[in-house]
Amino acid sequence: MTESAQDGEYDAWLDSIESDNGYYLECSNGHGWLPPRRVCPRCHDQDLSEVDLPESGEIASHTTITVPTPQFEDDAPYVTAIADFGPVSVTGLVRDVDPDDVSIGDVVGLDVGERVTTGERAVVFRPR
Amino acid sequence: MSDPRIAGASVTHFGKHPERTGRDLFAEAGLEALSQAGIDPDDAEALYYGNFMGELAEHQGHQGPLMAEAIGLDVPATRVEAACASAGTAVREAVKTIRNGEAEVVVVGGAERMTNIGTAAATDALAIAADDLYEVRAGMTFPGAYALMARSYFDQYGGSHEDLAHIAVKNHEHALVNEHAQIQKEITVEDATEAPTIASPLGLYDSCPITDGAAAAVLTTESYAEERDLDAPVAITGTGQGGDNLALQDRPHLAQTPAADKAADEAYEDAGVGPDDVDFAEVHDCFTIAEVFAIESLGFYERGEGIAAARNGETTRDGDRPINLSGGLKAKGHPVGATGVAQLATVAWLLDGSHPRADAVPDSTVGVAHNAGGTVASTTVHIMEVRE
Ligand SMILES: [Zn+2]
């Protein structure tokens, strides 16, 4: 693949996590979202501010994927999870844990890692 | 306002037809639907056509006019894309067009060619119904997304993989007499629970297959059908559509499908019926757990209770309210952009008595089709009733 353009606010958000300044966007009513967002889809508020992400989150659900897309061929089997970080939830790859030992409620931290197959950046969770 | 009549409908065989082009698949279904309707094709005034992944599978965009041409029509043709709900959404557009008095005859359909690119590329193509930045880049596949929803359901409400297996067993059994079905093979609960895992907790038998196929229907106004004495006893009396956040991570609940709640509420109100009036339904069981979400959102079961319906024999063909008498997506197959219209055709045939499983629902008068896109970020619900 040729060098491609970055994905604006998404890559900037990954940069923020890599430099330990991870944030989410919060509206005046406390609804949390990940960028890019210009408006809260729940309450229409456009006054979104950057708030520090909590140090740790809790796994809300997880799956061990054994039939991947080609972009994750060499990653499989791998665990994809959704983790709750206060008012915002994040989807990521669970690392440093045996897939059989991942449970709902596990406490994880947020990091940026690499996909095995492509070397591209990916959101990862590690146990805390 | 006239409720559209279904004057004709057709589906191709659903299965592996890797060498058949999308346009040929749709031509078969569309021409047969027009023939069944017994109308002058010149009377058709519009085509609404569902297709999801034509760019990826056939390097073919701009499919509206291509498909109109394939069935010999020179009409305004619009492709509708809402992932797996593309055809259901096309039906809704066709219903609105007829109700608005803009047309007396509309053709609606859909097609998908999938197996020609192989399983890996098809898995990749299906994944684009999810949020690319936040889900696909975190390894989310289509089965993976439903696996996250299934595990959350088990955690919140209980239930097990064995409960899901009963849904697969039921839908496989229903498909045994459906000659259009991709899979006509009886399976056991043990077959399903012991099958290889694809995305835990979901296994091979929790997932619909990858399918090539097409479906089409001809909708007319009531007056058009009556003036020409068409055999069109089934009317679409209610339509509803709902949406949700695209990414699972942005939803308040992982084990509920509010887009389908909204679509169902709107469709019931539109038709003036309620869940208790419904004799049977064709619902979007791309994965076994999706059937559970569907029958809860349609109001047949309280939250957390749909999981036991198949195991209890309530949704089997001899149950109180059979679900997916066609075999569902699970056994009939799921050519993504055709599914919503195949469901419409199935409901019409069950109501008019011409479906091979119509004996399971004799004297039925109200059927429902529930078509969901992605992880149910789009849903359409259509109510069909016998008129005359
Ligand atoms: Zn808000």
TrEMBL record, chain A:
Ranges for domain ChsH2 C-terminal OB-fold: 50-108
Domain of life of the organism encoding this protein: Archaea
SUPFAM superfamilies named in the record: Nucleic acid-binding proteins
Any Pfam family hit: OB_ChsH2_C
Protein name: ChsH2 C-terminal OB-fold domain-containing protein
Species of provenance: Haloarcula sebkhae
Automatic annotation (TrEMBL), chain B:
Transmembrane domains' residue ranges: none
Keyword Zinc set for record: no
Stretches assigned to the Thiolase N-terminal domain: 6-223
Molecular functions per Gene Ontology: acyltransferase activity, transferring groups other than amino-acyl groups
Keywords: Isoprene biosynthesis
Keyword Repeat assigned: no
Biological processes, Gene Ontology terms: isoprenoid biosynthetic process
Superkingdom of origin organism: Archaea
Pfam families documented for this protein: Thiolase_C_1, Thiolase_N
Thiolase C-terminal domain boundaries: 240-385
InterPro entries: Thiolase, Thiolase-like, Thiolase_C_2, Thiolase_N
Descriptive protein name: 3-ketoacyl-CoA thiolase
